[in-house]
Amino acid sequence: MRVVKGHGTGNDFVLVPDFDGAIELTPGLVRALCDRHTGIGADGVLRVVCSARDPEALSMMSDAPYFMDYRNADGSIAEMCGNGIRVVARYLQSLHLVSQSAAVATRGGIKCVQANGDGNVAVEMGLPRVLADRPVVTAAPMLRPTPATAVQMPNPHVVVDVTDLAELAALDLARPPVLDPVHPEGQNVEFVVR
């Protein structure tokens, strides 16, 4: 299996070109590729397939020529990844398979990407959907659970307001924050200073 390593705004990915749709990404294979000690090491795997060769892409009945199949490092399937779609677009553009402006299918819908000429790629992510849920998040050294805002982008996110840059810098993010309730598919957590 041929792979390419890609980076986008601090995230790194193993990109698997699979234009004919022949490769099956099992959770075990994804975990092995993403393992930073025994594998290549990455935040996730991006499988790029011709939309006409992928059942999920075909079900969207889109005009996007390529489909991004994104998997988290733990092997779970995700709808979308903003940094990942930019890496996929840059890869397809480097092979001259798409123009500087292109559409790529994802589980989170069709995403329009635009290369700006200096190697960077922008993506139209769409509007976030703020949910009614009010999860609480605890991250060391927070003394108490902190209310957060649940957002779909289209993946589930939780946004936590912190008081200032000092509080943000003091967070121990080497340990994952604790969420209550826990989303069944997992959630991305962002800490912001307003």
| Main sheet: strands, sense, barrel | 8 strands, mixed
> What Rg is obtained from the alpha carbons, in whole angstroms?
18 Å
The CATH level-2 architecture of the largest domain is identified as: Roll
Assign the CATH superfamily of the largest domain. Diaminopimelate Epimerase, Chain A, domain 1
How many β-strand runs?
15
- Which fold name corresponds to the CATH topology of the largest domain? Diaminopimelate Epimerase, Chain A, domain 1
Which structural class do you get from the secondary structure elements? alpha+beta
Overall mean pLDDT: 88
Q: SSE order, as H and E?
A: EEHEHEEHEEEEEEEEHEE
What report would you give on this structure?
- This protein has two domains: 4-124, Diaminopimelate Epimerase, Chain A, domain 1 (Roll); 129-193, no CATH class.
- The model has no long low-confidence stretch (mean pLDDT 88).
- It has 194 residues and is an alpha+beta fold.
- The longest helix is centred in the middle third of the chain and has 13 residues, at 82-94.
- It has helices at 27-34, 55-60, 82-94, 165-170; strands at 4-8, 11-17, 44-50, 66-72, 77-78, 101-106, 109-115, 121-124, 129-130, 136-138, 146-147, 149-152, 156-162, 178-180, 188-193.
- It starts with a strand and ends with a strand.
- Strands 1, 2, 3, 4, 5, 6, 7 and 8 form an eight-stranded mixed beta sheet that branches.
- Strand 4 and strand 5 (77-78) form a beta hairpin.
- The protein contains four helices and 15 strands.
